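Duplicate of #3305? Posting structure anyway:
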């Protein structure tokens, strides 16, 4: 059961990357909120299954735990982009962005608008790496430093209501996903 959990976590890492690439790069223009949600369901389901198998199995040995740690960090990175974008699209659905926010029309059409919180994808990847590594290192207090630094860096942009809402949703989704991915490792250590 323990080995199955690690395999599922590794598959979540690879599948998250592949599905994200397919949705982001291959289907970007016509990718609907439903497409993003279905894409996000792949790594979420695999991580949930890995957690259940981890809880049902015996504690993992050191070598298997190291593989699980690497897989958890990669899963945090790859699945996070899917999860965050899907949640942002759900949050934006049906809203209209006003001219004062810099864009007009349906907000879901501009989820990855480069003018709203530029560099968000790259920052999110770095954030998930930092969160996953601080938890795995046994220093969960590091999350506060990561979030504090991110907040200070984004402070000037957060005066726009669209930016502040996206910042909160994106940050919480990103951090919770990283914690969930790393949480599988803790089910294997008990």
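Output from current build:
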């Amino acid at each position: 059961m323990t080995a199955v959990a690690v395999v599922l976590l590794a598959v979540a890492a690879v599948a998250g990357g592949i599905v994200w690439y397919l949705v982001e790069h291959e289907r970007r223009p016509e990718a609907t909120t439903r497409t993003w949600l279905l894409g996000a369901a792949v790594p979420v389901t695999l991580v949930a299954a890995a957690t259940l198998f981890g809880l049902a199995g015996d504690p993992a040995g050191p070598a298997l735990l190291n593989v699980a740690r690497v897989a958890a960090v990669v899963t945090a990175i790859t699945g996070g982009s899917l999860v965050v974008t899907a949640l942002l699209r759900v949050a934006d659905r049906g809203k209209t962005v006003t001219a004062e926010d810099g864009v007009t029309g349906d907000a879901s059409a501009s989820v990855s608008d480069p003018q709203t919180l530029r560099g968000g994808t790259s920052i999110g990847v770095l954030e998930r790496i930092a969160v996953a590594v601080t938890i795995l290192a046994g220093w969960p207090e590091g999350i506060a430093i990561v979030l504090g630094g991110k907040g200070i860096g984004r402070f000037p942009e957060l005066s726009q209501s669209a930016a502040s809402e996206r910042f909160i949703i994106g940050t919480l989704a990103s951090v919770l996903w990283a914690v969930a991915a790393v949480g599988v490792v803790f089910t294997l250590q008990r």
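Confirmed duplicate; merging threads. Residues 2-95+118-189 form one domain. The radius of gyration is 17 Å.
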